Amino acid sequence: MAPDEGRIDPDWRSAGERIETLLDASSAGGTLARERADQLVREVVDLYGAGLQRMVALLDPRTLDELAADELIASLLLVHGLHPHDVATRVRAALDSVRPYLGSHGGDVDLLAVTADGVVRLRLTGSCKTCPSSSVTLELAVKDAVLAAAPETTDIVVDTEPAPSSTPDLIPADSLLAKVHSTPSPGHGTWIPVPELDDLLPGEVGGYALGGLTMLVCRIDDDLFAYRDRCPACMNSLAGVVLQRGAGSVGNAVLRCPTCGAHYDVRGAGRGLDHPADHLDPFPVLVRDGTLAVAVPVPEGAG
Questions:
Q1: I need a surface site. Which of 85, 124, 256, 274 has the fewest CB within 10 A?
Q2: What is the DSSP secondary structure assignment for residue 168, as one 8-state letter?
Q3: How do strand 189-193 and strand 291-297 relate by DSSP bridges?
Q4: Fold for domain 192-297?
Q5: Which string of b and e fits 104-129 if b means at least 16 CB within 10 Å?
Q6: Strand, coil or helix: 193
Q7: For residues 62 and 75, what is the distance between their CA atoms, to the nearest angstrom?
Q8: CA of 167: how far to CAs of 87, 88, 100, in Å?
Q9: What's the CA gap between 109 and 253, in Å, rounded?
Q10: In what order do the strands lie in the sheet with 155-158?
């Protein structure tokens, strides 16, 4: 089956919020009505959980692994404590999924530990440690990937000393509404599907308006790099910019501002070649649910 065939509508991410809205509406009928509605949801969750448990018992490990690779199925397995992989394994897989993006910044990330209270401790390595965009890298790419794979996670911190690791408790069924949702936290980010990025040819630069921001996306060979449409040197738009061939190891991966002529290393996380202190603002581009998506920050105070 092709990746797009039979795919559940992506609105499943907001199913928890819609259910919670309906439960809140039931409160209009009084406390008893709300309690009955809550009990109905718990009964349905428990019923489906029991069915999932029987199905999992009949599956061979390889088939179960394939099913767990689907985000929706993985979420349901996690809610009912049926996921075949422990939290540390899932976090490592999530980090592997964002390593290509971190590599574009000349960096990497190590998992130090998962604490008993669900805190994931990481260490950024390479140039990511000092890159001005490291906070974007951590919050929009690493954190989102880890939380999607391991919603038990309570926090993600960068540490320099390993901490004792252990597996946190399984997710109870009554946390379904809190775990299966898509509302981003203010100051963090939300992933916006942009299937049009597949149409970019190698060497092309496209402009896109996403989440109230205008950004440029460059394709170099098979790699995509997204940046805010703003030159940090002159603060003007980069509209009309084209990829140019640079000197040395940069290769065919330089953006030149049409207004002030400043040059930026596309593969090097938008590092300024004329003034290293100038840095384009990058955005992670990853495949989510089989579709290319860009992580866009949510302004503080939003929501």
A1: 274
A2: P
A3: antiparallel
A4: Rieske Iron-sulfur Protein (2.102.10)
A5: bbebbbebbbbbeebbbbbbbeebbe
A6: strand
A7: 18
A8: 6, 7, 27
A9: 24
A10: 107-114, 119-126, 155-158
pLDDT tens-digit readout, 174-187: 443 343 444 444 44
What is the chain's alpha carbon radius of gyration, rounded to the nearest angstrom?
A: 22
Count of C-beta atoms within a 10 Å radius of residue 171: 20
**Superfamily of the domain at 87-183:** Fe-S cluster assembly (FSCA) (3.30.300.130)
Distance CA 190, CA 45 (A): 27
- Paired strand residues for 206: 217
CB 8 within 8 A of CB 72: yes
Q: Which stretches of the chain score pLDDT less than 50?
A: 1-8, 160-188, 248-250, 300-303
Look-up: residue for tokens 């574009």?
Answer: 104
Report how far Cα 59 is from the mean position of its chain's Cα atoms.
29
The pLDDT score that the predictor gives to residue 181 is 40
Domain ranges of the chain: 10-79, 87-183, 192-297
Q: Residues 95, 146: contact at Cβ < 8 Å?
A: yes
* CA gap 178, 189 in Å, rounded: 17
pTM score, whole prediction: 0.54
Same fold, 87-183 and 192-297: no
